[in-house]
Amino acid sequence: MIQYFTIALRNMTVNRVSLFTKSIAVTPLIIALAVALSSASIKADDKNPQSINVLSSIKPIQLIATAIVGDLGHSNLLLPPSANPHHYQLRPSQRARLSNADLFIWVGPELELFLVKVLQSSGVNQLPLTAALKLQQDSTENHSSRRDTLEHHEHSHNHENGYTSAFDPHIWLNPAYTRSIAESIYNELSTHYPAHQIRLRENTDTFLARLKTSEEQITKQFTAQSQIDIYTFHHAFSYFADYFGMTISGTITLTPESRPGAKHLAQLASEISNKKSICLIKEPNFKAPYVETITQGTDVKVITADPLATAMVNSETGYIEFIHAIADSFSQCLK
Ligand SMILES: [Zn+2]
Questions:
Q1: Which CATH number fits domain 225-334: 3.10.20.310, 3.40.50.1980, 3.20.20.70, 1.10.760.10?
Q2: Which of 7, 50, 74, 324 has the most CB atoms in a 10 Å sphere around its CB?
Q3: Superfamily (CATH H level) for 50-217
Q4: Domain boundaries of the chain, sorted by first residue
Q5: pLDDT per position in the chain (335 positions), as tens?
Q6: Helix/strand/coil percentages in the chain, nearest 5
Q7: The whole model's pTM is what?
């Protein structure tokens, strides 16, 4: 409810700004109404053209952007935090919010395919991260740049259980990519807001220093070797596991929105029945009733981890808290 009101008030603020820019055509009554409704929510910096107004497609990217923007403006979110970014349809009000952003940050067509058409007709300034990081599937540079940043990358990408070696779009779960994402956002914002360049650099450096400390702490969490096989609900955590030297033995489904095929489930059940103990990482936003049937007769530990940071507070340390939450879930698996 509170969230709904925040969004409603924010939209009114946006409307008010656009009403003023087109004020010749607007009746005084509408202006008076808009001012009355929105005055409580307006902060001083909304009147400042130098106030940064970035919009991100998904929560984990918003959290990185929030760390860079700091108190220089607003870092907002386009999709509801629990929405499935692999498969979504924007409402007209969301399209309007997209068009009103100074900068829109999204992962790329590899994740939010539904945004490609929308962005073609929107004209908003955009930062597609897979392109900015040169990670696109067809890029010939792709393989060498990924090898540079990921020591353990190759070995985990060909499972016998039906998962193909398609590009993994969950790039925010690889700390090396997160550093590049932060730098990309910094570059983009410091170009658009040169007056804020020094502050933006300070914010970026603070974020990168926090991330480095977190990586060191998380690395220590995973020094002990474990015999447990980790299975994840959908193919979201490969980067995270690779980066910290763990292996994902398999995934229940490739795309979270669709039920996995009967053949894949049967294969998985027979594979799992040969394991002594497994840890299954479920996601809070997806129900998977078939999970119980395939793990019958096996010592299975079920843990929840949220690759979309749904419950994280949008703050300058939100991403850091998020990556620790993922690490803590994996740690529970290995205990
Ligand atoms: Zn996903």
A1: 3.40.50.1980
A2: 74
A3: Nitrogenase molybdenum iron protein domain (3.40.50.1980)
A4: 1-42, 50-217, 225-334
A5: 344 333 333 433 333 333 333 334 444 444 444 443 333 333 334 557 689 999 999 999 999 999 999 999 999 999 999 999 999 999 999 999 999 999 999 999 999 999 999 999 998 999 999 999 999 755 443 333 333 333 333 333 333 333 344 789 999 999 999 999 999 999 999 999 999 999 999 999 999 999 999 999 999 999 877 788 999 998 899 999 999 999 999 988 877 777 888 888 888 888 888 888 899 999 998 877 777 777 777 788 999 999 999 999 999 999 999 999 999 999 999 88
A6: 50, 10, 35
A7: 0.78
* CA of residue 85 to ligand 1 center, whole Å: 7
Question: What CA–CA distance (Å, rounded) separates 42 from 131?
Answer: 35
Residue 136 CA to ligand 1 center (angstroms) comes to 16
- 317 Cα to the center of ligand 1, angstroms: 23
Ligand 1 centroid to 84 CA: how many Å?
7
Contact 290, 185 (CB under 8 A): no
Cα 282 to ligand 1 centre (Å): 12
Q: How far is the CA of 170 from the centre of ligand 1 (A)?
A: 6
CB atoms within 10 A of CB 157: 16
Distance 48 CA to ligand 1 centre (A): 37
Q: Find the 319 Cα to ligand 1 centroid distance in Å.
A: 17
Nearest to 180 by CA among 68, 70, 104: 68
- C-beta separation of 196 from 50 below 8 A: yes
Ligand 1 mean position, distance from CA 168 (Å)? 9
Q: How many CA atoms lie within 13 A of 109 on its CB side?
A: 9
Cα–ligand 1 centroid distance for 307 (angstroms): 7
